[in-house]
């Protein structure tokens, strides 16, 4: 093809667009990027079978399958034709109500439908939560070790990341002294992943109470990633961070992916665990709604 006498390299230099350099480091930090690199180096003709211990999707194996009750409900919802139209951007009311009732079982107060915002999996819940908090100069406190997607999303949103350590000698509890030392007037939130990913720890009621009091003193919210709720072993029962919503406002993030072994169904949620109404007063609820209005419509789900 005639390019006007200009070679390809020179022609490319005239274009005004190019890649977003920040996305290269974001992609490299993801868990899938690491697994893809490992898998790419596995020899198909290797002498030993490969056990995928890094596989994060148990539904890929026949021994893990969700209940037939859920499958039948999905089939019935599809055949009903009642859910083929566009859903409200915050999610359909019956699903929001069901999630509110389910999560309220573990709380000292009742969640309402208005506290629930449906998302396309917990990944979108993280995206929206961090996007809502992003403002020039703001920083967020993340656990180390933690789930790398938080760092990636913070980078995309221009949020400065400051890491607090989890203490292995204390069962991977949060170093709360470090949290207080790291926070300043530009700190907006701290992320608590419980049950822990990747450490597998489960925080005690007492430790979560200390986390809530620390966040209250600092004037920051807690983002509670509870996607593994109730998938626990050992002596510590799962306690939702929302139990301490009267102490500090909590954005609870979750999904049906892990406990119900259906990550491909892409149903997650953001919950305002905030009986004192701080999120409404500070317009955080309005911002969550706005983000859902301008991003991909959240997944619809079965009635009830």
Automatic annotation (TrEMBL):
Which keywords fit this entry according to its UniProt record? Aminotransferase, Pyridoxal phosphate, Transferase
Report the cofactors. Answer: pyridoxal 5'-phosphate
Q: Does the keyword Transferase apply?
A: yes
Outline the extent of the Aminotransferase class I/classII large domain. 50-286
Enumerate the Pfam families for this protein.
Answer: Aminotran_1_2 (PF00155)
GO annotation, biological process: L-tyrosine catabolic process
Q: Which PROSITE patterns match?
A: AA_TRANSFER_CLASS_1
For this chain, one GO molecular function annotation is: L-tyrosine-2-oxoglutarate transaminase activity
Q: Does the keyword Transferase apply?
A: yes
Give the family, as the similarity comment puts it: Belongs to the class-I pyridoxal-phosphate-dependent aminotransferase family.
Spell out the protein name for this chain. Answer: Nicotianamine aminotransferase
Give the species this sequence originates from: Musa troglodytarum
């Amino acid at each position: 093809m005639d390019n006007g006498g200009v070679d390809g390299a020179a022609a490319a230099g005239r274009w005004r667009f190019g890649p977003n350099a920040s996305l290269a480091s974001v992609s490299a930090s993801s868990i899938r990027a690491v697994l893809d690199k490992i898998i790419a180096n596995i020899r198909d003709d290797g002498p030993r079978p490969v056990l995928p211990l890094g596989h994060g999707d148990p539904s890929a194996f026949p021994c893990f399958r969700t209940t037939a009750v859920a499958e039948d409900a999905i089939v019935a919802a599809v055949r009903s034709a009642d859910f083929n139209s566009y859903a409200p951007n915050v999610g359909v009311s019956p699903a929001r109500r069901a999630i509110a009732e389910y999560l309220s079982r573990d709380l000292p107060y009742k969640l309402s439908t208005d506290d629930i915002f449906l998302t396309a999996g917990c990944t979108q819940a993280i995206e929206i939560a961090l996007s809502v908090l992003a403002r020039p100069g703001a920083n967020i406190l993340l656990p180390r070790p933690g789930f790398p997607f938080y760092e990636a999303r913070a980078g995309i949103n221009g949020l400065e990341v400051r890491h607090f350590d989890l203490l292995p000698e204390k069962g991977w509890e949060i170093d709360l002294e470090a949290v207080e030392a790291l926070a300043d007037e530009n700190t907006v939130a701290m992320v608590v992943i419980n049950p822990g990913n990747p450490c597998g720890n489960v925080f005690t009621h007492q430790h979560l109470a200390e986390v809530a009091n620390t966040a209250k003193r600092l004037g920051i919210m807690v983002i509670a990633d509870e996607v593994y709720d109730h998938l626990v072993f050992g002596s510590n029962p799962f306690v939702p961070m929302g139990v301490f919503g009267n102490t500090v406002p909590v954005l609870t993030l979750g999904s049906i992916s892990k406990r119900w072994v259906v990550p491909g169904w892409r149903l997650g949620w953001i919950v305002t665990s905030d009986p004192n109404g701080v999120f409404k007063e500070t317009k955080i609820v309005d911002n969550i709604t706005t983000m859902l209005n301008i991003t991909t419509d959240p997944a619809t789900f079965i009635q009830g």
